[in-house]
Amino acid sequence: MNCPKCGKQNADGAKFCIKCGSSLEGPASNADASPALAAVPEEQSILKNKIFLVALAVVFIVLAAGGISSSSQSTPSGAVKKMIKSIEAGNYSSYRNSYSAEGLEMANTLSFDLKVFLEESKKKVEQKEGIKEIEITKETIKGDEAEVCYKIEYGNKSIEETCDDLVKENGDWKIPF
After folding, report:
1. CATH no. for residue 139?
2. How many domains does the chain have?
């Protein structure tokens, strides 16, 4: 199915365009949605949680670095900084560009709305009273894959430790969905 806004070819049954994020559904109800998509709510919930943690980590890294001005995706750190800046600014286009093409296709297949997720991510950081400190504990690059581990301390004194994977796509580091 072609996107009515940008013309990008999308998978049959997709609800959002993998290129511009526009809805591929008309005003009709979701009653005719694919039965396969109706069977993924638990997987979608798990995916939302993982994406939230990745987005949150990116926000923390940028804030800890004092608003670093570089937005390069030529290193895993640059990709993370770019994603954090897009979350802070609410810049959907930049945020969406932080994900790999395969990740965007998966989000589309699962009808995962990145715009809504971006808004929710900003709110969750605010609920934890912002980011107090981010400590990167490990960064490993192996070929076209990387892993970045970090510890986040929020303003409300809660702490999270996590690791995120990145993939190199056309010379840029991207977050795989």
Report:
1. 3.10.450.50
2. 1
